[in-house]
Amino acid sequence: MMKMPAESRILERAEQYMRKLSLGVNPLNEEALPDNDICRQERISKCLAYVADYLQQKLAPKAPQQAAKKNSKRERPARKLATAELTLSPETLSKYEITEEPVSVSGVVRRLNALLPEGSEMIPLIYSDVAEVLTREGILLKQVGEKGKDTNLPSPRGEEMGFKRAEADIRGHHAVYTKCDATAQKFILEKIQDCVALANERFARYQAQDAARENAGEAAADVADGHSAKERFHLTEAELAKYPNDDTPVPVSEIARRLNDLLAPDANIEKIYFKSIRDWFVAQGFIESKTDAVGKTRFEPTEAGQAKGVFTEQRIGKNGESYSAVLYGPEVQKMVLEHVNELC
Q1: Does residue 147 belong to any structural domain of this protein?
Q2: 125: containing domain
Q3: Are strands 297-301 and 287-291 parallel, antiparallel or unpaired?
Q4: Nearest CA to 299 among 321, 319, 323, 322?
Q5: What integer best gives the mean pLDDT of the chain?
Q6: Tens digits of per-residue pLDDT, 255-305?
Q7: 214, 246, 278 — which closes off a domain?
Q8: What is the DSSP letter of 254?
Q9: If phi over 0 gives left and psi between -120 and 50 gives alpha, with beta otherwise, what is residue 157?
Q10: What are residue 316's DSSP bridge partners?
Q11: pTM for the full model?
Q12: What is the spatial distance between Cα 211 and Cα 217, in angstroms, rounded to a whole number?
């Protein structure tokens, strides 16, 4: 079915937002996300990049024969994970277009990542890689901005090199960030290999962490029990179609149970844990964690979550005590089904 123009515009905007978030950039104001933002986490960044690539394919689908050939090999698209170190060759860097119009540091990062060969699966450059190098060079200084948040802004030397403090008001949010003129963009390109080295150090750390988890985790336990290692949780479209189609709001544990019930009894596939779904809801901004006076963490729906049908309900536990349960309506359950193969 041919997409209507309005739908194409929505998909294009969604692809742009996902792409910027995967690169650590706020898509509304081009400001770098805080270092502790969940979108800056490697696994979340990879998932966002995967969604952006998927939307890009929807906007510019391949020829029918190629698509049919690809679909015949597998029922669901392969995950696009970083499996190689970052390399920015002189040939690649020569394609970067230096503009007289100032661009944010995050914008420079985004443009550089756009030059990476399609399908290379190299780890992308992120804002902090460049900001760290610029800080070492005395170009940026970490300053306390509004609401006590640290912000990287130009030093006097940075201003001489073409790095300028910029401000913008986007939807009621006042942003302060750094923009780079043509001279500043050239300076970043001159130092880009130092930035690449930081990106690859980050990649090596994640590889070491993954290897350590694999050596000490479930794969080793399965081998010890005489079983082959299980595949990560995933469901086919046919299996997802069997998800209970009702309007009953349910807790996240029930969503996980329903999804696990869709797996074939003899499937050598890991089950999904409710925390994976809950963490995804947190990443979407539908719920947030809060700590009470005794240090106990609980989750509550945000305004965005409430708009999607997430709410709390008082219930009575087995011990007779009252507790607050977070329930999820049909709209967010449907969203989980659409993204379930990216959650684990």
Answers
A1: yes
A2: 5-214
A3: antiparallel
A4: 323
A5: 80
A6: 999 999 999 888 888 899 888 899 889 889 999 988 766 567 788 999 999
A7: 214
A8: H
A9: alpha
A10: 322
A11: 0.44
A12: 10
